[in-house]
Amino acid sequence: MPVSYKLVPISKPASANKVKVLIRPSVVINEIITPDVFLEKFSQYKRFPKANIVHFMYSLQEFLLQELKEGNIVQTGAIGTFFPLVTLKKEKNKDTKNTINNFEFGINYRPTLEMKKELEGAELKKVQI
Q: What's the whole-model pTM score?
């Protein structure tokens, strides 16, 4: 099944009284693979027992979180690279009206070049809005 996409207009301020309309591609999502469906499909695909897959996924999550909390970059090889991310969010204090800097911790993911190349080879199908 090909990946479907549609062209979506977005507005961008061009000048004081004019609005510039741009077009961007947007993927049409077919379905969301829930954890139960993921386990069912993956266990059939690779013939691993579901319990082993669940145990591996939770172990991987625990390991990644521990390493990321320590500020480490985790290169998994086949899946890609996970690295910690810090963003700054400025908020106004309601009482004093001063700006407060809040730092938020996040996780960034970069897939491997092999994964990107495989996805680039996917068949694309344009759909009408």
A: 0.68
